[in-house]
Amino acid sequence: MTDKDVKEYLRTNGYPDHLVRGGRKALVERYEKFAAQVEAGYSLTLDDYRNDLDLRAIIGRLGLQKHVADADRRLRRCMVFCADPIWECAENPDAFWIHGVPKKPKGDLKKDLKAAGY
């Protein structure tokens, strides 16, 4: 998929302008940043965490998995997996990223996970 195709998909599906403008590169960079945040101890809210998981779903829909293979490996190492998904992903219900929470949650995420029973 070309970067033009990626941008058109993002625009058509109502994603934020900064992602549309950045295209494939912005998606990959944002997901890599998310993986680094989880490694360091994610501290934003549970809603923010779920929103960041949506990046990975978009990457999958667009067939860009090979561009995030390293970030996927890093993220997988920093997660504790659970039976029930933390986020819904209809097109990929068995995806590893929706069945885990960070090993080192901090701040708001730690409080939100506890309140949600994780």
Helix and strand topology:
Blueprint: H1 3-12, H2 17-40, H3 46-61, H4 69-77, E1 79-81, E2 100-102, H5 107-116
Antiparallel strand pairs: 1-2
Helix pairs in contact: 1-2, 2-3, 2-4
Total helical elements: 5
End-to-end Cα distance, whole Å, is 37 Å
What is the string of helix and strand elements? Answer: HHHHEEH
Major sheet size, sense and barrel closure: 2 strands, antiparallel
Q: Could you estimate the helical fraction of the residues in percent?
A: 55-70%
Global shape: globular
Outline the low-pLDDT stretches: none
Q: Radius of gyration, rounded? A: 14 Å
Q: Report mean pLDDT, rounded to a whole number.
A: 93
- The fraction of residues assigned to DSSP E strands is 5-15%
How many E-type strands? 2
Strand order of the largest sheet: 1-2
Describe the overall structure.
The chain is mostly helical and 118 residues long. It contains five helices and two strands. A two-stranded antiparallel sheet has the order 1-2. The protein is globular, with a radius of gyration of 14 Å.
